[in-house]
Amino acid sequence: MTTRLLEEKRGVVLGVANDRSIAWGCAQACAHHGAELAFGYPNDAMKKRVEELAQTMPGAPVLLCDVTKDDDISAFFAKLKEHWGSIDFVVHSIAFAHRDDLKNPFLQTPRDHFALAMDVSAYSLVAVAREAAPLMTNGGSIVTMTYYGAEKVIPNYNVMGVAKAALEACTRYLAYDLGPQSIRINAISAGPIRTLSASAISDLRIMLDVAEKTAPLRRNVTQTEVGNAALYLLSDLASGVTGEVHHVDCGYNTLGLSAYEPSGE
């Protein structure tokens, strides 16, 4: 019998947009290993999409959680406390930047656009962790999603790369704050994946092609593989791992290449 790594665990998944979302890959891996899940959605436009997917996991609560509003986050976790009493993990897979800011030079990023990207993509992790921590009465684990553009310049990633760098710093500082409560927090840096959010990045197809040709495994990473990495970090197998960025990219970043550098062949 296969060991179910999250048996009797309860967790939150934030950031599901459709069945190709990284968050959905994480949700499927967690559910397959026995976890009970709750989902958050940011607005009425996204509600139906999330509800349709959540129906494949009977009994999963689907609740409003606009991470730009502290009251929404507080109400979301208050409802979960009433429903479950406690939780064991959170998957935070949320980011946003205006589409124009992923096309125009980074130098032209307006102040309010910069602030919004940082709020949704980085600060939301702090706000969510603050509300989730009191429900993790037996310790817990939080996983967020970053990208190589936080470390190196990736053309057209622009303000999102800066926001992801801030997200990674938040991960380290939160690991320090939450460690005494036996709450771990880590980030996963996946290679380029064709998702709804990624479609806003110019020349995504070129990035995918170059990554496939230069990665040691000669292919791109999948949502399922990212989900399995999250499963490890959320489970007790990673009980001593916190404050780290974990690359899941078929070895692409081991070569130190940017998304547009040739393979050298």
Structural class: alpha/beta
Rough shape? globular
Assembly state (oligomeric):
single chain
Cα(first) to Cα(last) distance is 46 Å
Strand order of the largest sheet: 3-2-1-4-5-6-7
Q: Helix segment count?
A: 7
Name the helicity range.
Answer: 25-40%
Global Rg: 18 Å
Specify the biggest β-sheet. 7 strands, parallel
User: Beta-strand percentage?
Assistant: 5-15%
- Annotation, overall tally of beta strands: 7
Chain-averaged pLDDT: 89
Low-pLDDT segments: 259-265
Characterise the protein shown here.
With 265 residues, the chain is α/β, with parallel strands linked by helices. The chain has helices at 22-32, 44-54, 70-84, 111-132, 159-178, 204-214, 223-234; strands spanning 10-14, 36-41, 62-64, 89-92, 140-147, 183-190, 245-248. The protein has seven helices and seven strands; from the N terminus they run βαβαβαβαβαβααβ. A seven-stranded parallel β-sheet has the order 3-2-1-4-5-6-7, with helices on both faces. The chain is globular, with a radius of gyration of 18 Å.
Describe, in short, the structure shown.
The chain is of the alpha/beta class.
List descriptors.
alpha/beta, 265 residues, disordered C terminus, 7 strands, 7-stranded parallel β-sheet, 7 helices
List the helices and strands and how they pair.
Layout lengths: L9 E5 L7 H11 L3 E6 L2 H11 L7 E3 L5 H15 L4 E4 L18 H22 L7 E8 L11 H20 L4 E8 L13 H11 L8 H12 L10 E4 L17
Parallel strand pairs: 1-2, 1-4, 2-3, 4-5, 5-6, 6-7
